[in-house]
Each structure stands twice: as structure tokens, then as C-alpha cells.
Design brief:
heterodimer, A: alpha+beta, 34% strand, B: alpha/beta, 15 helices, 34 strands
Chain lengths: 83, 667
Amino acid sequence: AAEKRKTYIVHMAKSAMPAEYADHGEWYGASLRAVSVAPKMMLYAYDTVLHGFSARLTPQEAEDLACVEGVLAVNPEARYELH
Amino acid sequence: TTRTPEFLGIAGAGGGAQGMFPQSGTAADVVVGVLDTGVWPESRSYDDAGLAEVPSFWKGQCMAGAGFNSSACNRKLVGARFFNKGYEAAMGPMDTDRESRSPRDDDGHGTHTSSTAAGAPVPDASLFGFASGTARGMAPRARVAVYKVCWLGGCFSSDILAGMDAAVADGCGVLSLSLGGGAADYSRDSVAIGAFAAMEQNVLVSCSAGNSGPGSSTLSNVAPWITTVGAGTLDRDFPAYVVLGNGKNYTGVSLYSGKPLPSTPLPIIYAANASSSTAGNLCMPGTLTPEKVAGKIVICDRGVSARVQKGFVVRDAGAAGMVLSNTAANGQELVADAHLLPAAGVGEREGMAIKSYVASDPNPTATIMVAGTQVDVHPSPVVAAFSSRGPNMVTPEILKPDIIAPGVNILAAWTGKAGPTGLAADTRRVGFNIISGTSMSCPHVSGLAALLRSAHPEWSPAAVRSALMTTAYATYSGGSPLLDAATGATGTPFDYGAGHVDPSRAVDPGLVYDISDAEYLDFLCALKYSTTMIAAVARSRDFGCAENRTYSVGSLNYPSFSVTFSTANGDGGESSAAATVTHTRTLTNVGGAGTYKVSTSVSGAAAQGVAVAVEPTELAFTSAGEKKSYTVRFTSRSQPSGTSGFGRLVWSDGKHSVASPIAFTWT
């Protein structure tokens, strides 16, 4: 499974954060742990230009995460090139 | 950048546009964030002499890392961060012998782009004596913050988003991204997503259009909230002469500065005849037969591999020199490189003539003479053959690129970690390098945008872009249209958008096409984006498109027009029926009182049949900030699918000329 992991950009509905969480980072982590038992899979938590995070996921985990409440979209990472 | 300030008309006595733009240390201080390969902070282009204290709004950091101290920043280079988690997660741990886990630029590209945008003036800059002069960024008094998001293995969107996230939070006023990916809808394009939020937070985002020209529909970074920049030439060349044994002399370009070829002619051979490979003409690694090329000049064709790598391959095979011939893909465009051996790049026509001589003469000979730097070359600018072209494949109703700027043979600062060719075998080290690409044109516009933001802090990012676009020129001083290097013929708005940037006019555009955040959301509704897709682009705001409202892409207050006719536009659905497409626009007065009158023109056989009706034809403004709307109806009979035509719509009060390009396509 580790070999199949790819980076995904996960968009979250910030206003949908359950009251039990103190901050969004905590909520993002809990959402990720709900679908993946692998440790330290989150790369970045975004706050200014995107509400969400990037994480290393298997395709199944990405699919499962897309169904978690508060998750808007789970998009695979893209590679860009210098011009 | 030893030439572009003069070429752009902003070379003031004190190092840049003194008369038009305010000084740093005022409320108009602007920080340009450059997302790229990092920075070489020791470059003289980051000298902070004469700059006031770092503005109080600035929240950026100077991150320490391998070979990079937090003390590397100063009042010019106000921030330096790096984002590598996505890169290393995808590619494995980086090779720290080859790249630095820090903001340090191991490549040179990021140092080049950031110094182009806002580098300090550096007298006596040159590359081996070529392009000598004072190198300076377009906004020499703006601050620079670098966000290293590109690594030897590429630029990964998780890192790019992290860089944009930090740059906006830090307080950058302009972001410059000389990178791109494939065409994707905006909800899946990280640069478009990051740029939307940046725009909402009053940050102008300037991106390169891409180097996939001259083919059509090859653009990157086409979201309407991004300023998309194509590339044109300067009025500067680096001539070299290929003198053949038959006495004929062909002009090309070269930045070679080492030991010259002997004055006596050497044998010359076409690489295709010195290789057992079917693609031997391309001088790919391992394809040349050393016995056949030793001591000779080798003719290679452009394509597939990097131009400088071909030079290395030819030198490695034991040849004495190289003639690098353009093919139809590049036409007559000459891009100079600091090759490792005596070499000249020549246009397609010259290349064919030289190859013809080599094929017909039993003992062909030649020599190459490098002639230095030439300025006042005309015509200029010419659209670079490599510059990506429209139509916009993601949203054909938005004309892209927006504008062109200098992007061919640009001198700017370079890393101390790599030679000017970037090849591992190149052990030369230079303070400045000359390279080409829309990567180079983008930071020109980023710097100019910083100047405009500094001069007009109250203008939105859309207003700044509008000013740059509506004052751009699409004809030479004699009135003839800008040319395209790929064909040698007249270019079109699909090649140059509104035209070539003209900053001295952009500072006083008279009127601007402003666009609010809400209007961009309406645009997404017009594209029929779902609530989820809109939330992905515009973050998780509570926004939904109104069911009882009709949204139109043509209503986006864009400074250009892209009109797509299809049978669906016609009132009867028949292919011969006349179709009418309506666009509405609102102009905001950013000057004094004035009455503007409209004029329209069309070019090309297909466009001659298009009727353009503007209502009203006159707009009177009495005060700054006043807004007036107008409607344009474009009516045309059906044309064969794939046909295109062009035009221009201009509002003028006699002093200002507020010009919009028009592109018509029939589908």
C-alpha cells in the first residue's frame, strides 16, 4: 500500500468543522486518520489560499476520504514544469 | 534586463522610472513573491542599498537551511522559504550533493526570474561581455520574497500551494509564477486555485503562458483571475556568421566566448550523415560517430533535446564547432545559448541553405565568427515562436494570453551553483546569464505590475491587469501589425493577446475594466460549475449559483473579447443563419473627466463578415471612480468550423486609448 500512495490535495468545507475540534488542523488530522492508519501522511495543512491539506493516500483511502463529512474534493497532485 | 527598461520606456536616470512611480518606504511599498527554484542571495541584484526599512506589514521569514543562513535576507530580499514535502514524498529523499534543502537556488532559474522582476540595478553586468550594461529589475525598488517550490525533479502542486499559501499570508502584493502544467478545469488546477484566493486578498498573480508554441491551443495558466504572459523579442541580437567554403555567409546567433575557431575553414558535416541513428540529425546523446565528426563543424537540427545539450554532445564526440539549425517549428526565431564550443544558431531558411551546400559540395567547409551584441534590431518585438498560443482550451470565451513581454535572450542574475548552460559538464560560473522563455517574460510583467501597484495602491489586481492590457500595442510605430517569429507573418491576438506591454502608458490608462470577487464567482456559475467545484476554487464559502438567474461568460468584465459563434447562437438553428453574441462591459474612470468615443475594426476575411455594434457609442465621465457600462453585439453568418478572425475595440477621449483585442471563432 505504501508503494501505491500518491499525494492528494484535499479540500475541506471549513464551516462544516464539528464543534468538538479546537482548530482546523486538528479536524483535518482526524479526517485523515478516519481513512488511513499510516502515520504522518499529512504533508501540509493550508489555510490562506485553500481550506484543506495535502496527504499521501492510497487510491482507496482517497476514495474513502471523499465520502467523509466536510470533505469537498480529493484531487490527485499534479506536476508542473518551469517555463 | 540590461536592455528591457530602455525597450519598455521605463529607464529613468536613477535606475528606473523615477518620474512615474513612487519610492520605497512609503505606503506604496510592494513585495513581489516569486515561486520558483529559490535564490542566490549573494547576487548583486539583491543589494539593498538605498532601500528603506522592510515595510511593517511584511510577515515573511528568511528560513535557514543547507547552505543558507537566515541572515541572507536584507531590505531587498525580504523573504526566503522552501517547500519540499511534496517533492520528497513523490520522488524520495533529495540528493543533497546536487540540491539544497533550503531556499538556495541550485538551478539559476529562480534567481533569474526574481532579479528580472525586482532586482536592484547592477552596473557592468554581462555574460562573457555579451549584453553588457546595467542589469535591473522592472521594479528596482520593490522588495523580493522567494518561495522555492521547484526542485531538480519538478514542481509539485502540494508544494506550490504551500508556497502560495505562505506568500499571500506574508503580505506579497504580486506573485510571479514562471511555471505551468497541463490544461485542467480550474477546480483541479492548483495554480488557479491558489491564484483565486490571492486575487481575493488583493494580490495580483502573473503567470507564464508556456513554451509550447507555435501550435495553437497550447496555453497554460488560463484562469481569468491570472495575468497570462506570452513572450516577445527585444531589439537586441547576438549575431554570429557562418561563412561557407563557397563564399556565402549566413547570419545566426551565438553567445560563445571561448577560443575561436581557426580562421582557415574546417570541414562541415550534417549530423544525420555522421550517425547510425535514424534521428541522428538531432544530435542526441550517443548518436554521433566520433570518427566522422572529429575536428569538423557539425550541423544539428533543433528539437527533442535541449539546445545546449546538443552542443555538449557535439563537443563530446570530438567536433570543433556546431551549427544549430531551426526547423519549421521554430522558423526564423533565433535563441542564443552560451554553448561549450564554437556554435551558431541559424534560422530554418539559413539552415536549409547550409545543409544544401553541404549535400552538394564534395568537400564542404565552413567557419563560425561570433560578432558580439547588436541593438536597435528591427522589427521588434516579434512574438517568440516558442510562446504558447490560444485559443484557450479550458474556457474558449476568455482570450489568452493576456499580453506579451520580453522573453527572448534576457540577461539577469544567475546562481553560483551551475554554469550558464545548466549542464553538469559546464564548470563555468557567471553572475548573469542570458536565457529565453515565457518564464522570462512573466517576471517582466510581475515587476511592471509592482510598479503600477506602487503608483496606484488603490487599484485592484484586475484594474492593474486591465491597465497593462488596454494600453498594450499590437502594431509597430509605423502602424503595421506585430509579427510572429514562427511564420514571419502577422501575428494575431491568439499569439499576443492585447499586444506588447507598454508601462509608460499603463500608468495612465484613463479607464479600466475592473472585476470584483463576486463577478468571478458569477463566471464560475456561467461555466456551470457545481457548488463543490466552486468551493474548491473559491474555498468553502457559502456560495451557490442562483437558479433563477442567467449567467453569461460574456458578461465577465474582461479587457478583451473572445467571441465564439456556433449554430447554437443562431435563431433558427440552421447553419446559414446569422448568429449574434452579446457581451457587456463596465468601464471605471481612473483619470479625469472625459468623453470617450468607441471605434471598432476587424481584420481577416472571415471577420469582414462580422457586424460589431456597440451601445452606447459614447461614454462621458465626470469624476474618478465613475462607472459606465456598454454592450457589444457581434453578428455573423455561419463560417466553416475552425475559422477564426480578429478585431479591436477602442475607447478614446483623444488623450487615452483604451483598446481591447477581439478574437472570433466559429465552431
